[in-house]
Amino acid sequence: MKVVVPGGTGQVGTVLQRGLRARGHEVVVIGRRVQSDVVQWDGETLGPWAKELDGADVVINLAGRSVNCRYTAENLTQMMDSRVLSTRVVGEAIAQCVSPPAVWLQMSTATIYAHRFDAPNDELTGVIGGSEPDVPAYWKKSIDIAQAWEQTLAEAHTPHTRKVALRSAMVMSPDRGGIFDMLLLLTRMGLGGPIGGGQQWVSWIHEHDFVRAVALLVERDDIAGAVNLAAPSPLPQRELMAALRSACGQPVGLAATRWMAEIGAFLLRTDTELLLKSRRVVPARLGAVGFSFEHPTWAEAAAELVARRRDAPLVRRLST
Fold first, then answer.
1. Are 59 and 94 a contacting pair, CB within 8 Å?
2. Spatial CB neighbours of 314, under 8 Å, sequence gap ≥ 6
3. What contacts 199, CB < 8 A, 6 or more positions away?
4. In the CATH hierarchy, which top-level class contains the domain 2-311?
5. Measured between alpha carbons, how far is 121 from 115 in angstroms, rounded to an integer?
6. Which DSSP state fits 316?
7. Virtual CA dihedral for 215, 217, 222, 223, nearest 10 degrees?
8. Domains of the chain by residue range
9. Which of 103, 217, 295, 317 could form a disulfide bond with 176, CB atoms 3.0-4.6 angstroms apart?
């Protein structure tokens, strides 16, 4: 198959490129980065890049400004615009194709679900938006962005192209510069303890299962709409870090209070929502079609990722 991946130069794009090419597919990456193997676009307007979609089998749009930043008004605006505008123009490009792709997989996020501790969020019964007690009011901006992202996908007029919104949890891979790399660094420094009490739920998915789930969604022409891409066993942040310490052989994991997390996030130029929001997401639709996870539990997945990182210390460093 020919797979076109707008916004495919980041961590998730690297994971997909690696997995899809290993399966023998042709992968065309579209992005802002100037390099020989990337087709250029601005993420907002039609251009020569759109020709890559005509005759392609699959489009997987991953474009969007990184959420690993301070949630200032300017950054939140950029996060919103980069997602909505890129999704809109991908839809426009598909609409003008003579031979449009059969399926459009559009990146979304598990952050669309409300901060909660009482029950898991699946695609049918999950709570989206609404009132979130005891959290900063600006956290709702992330849900607003996710809803606008998916609404733009829904509004795109692509009658011959099936559309799927990928409500993805954190994709764990051993690549340097990714989320697992950051967690591993903190753990090895003895800082991998509970944050803000550690009761907030963390949803995640191993890179192999992420690619396998994407492949399934491409193949299954009866699946459209929102799909949670998350391992079936989310767990509290306290337990997540304990399992990672065990995999690393690190006995020490210093705890951080909420105010300590605020200081740390400020120094790292990121936001505490990424650390403190409780994301308890489960993959009901994948389960309903019989998808079997290779890495369903975090302890095993963490051990596998640590071993691969140890055996292959020169895993590609991701660009920032």
1. yes
2. none
3. 117, 236, 237, 238, 278
4. alpha beta
5. 10
6. P
7. 170
8. 2-311
9. 317
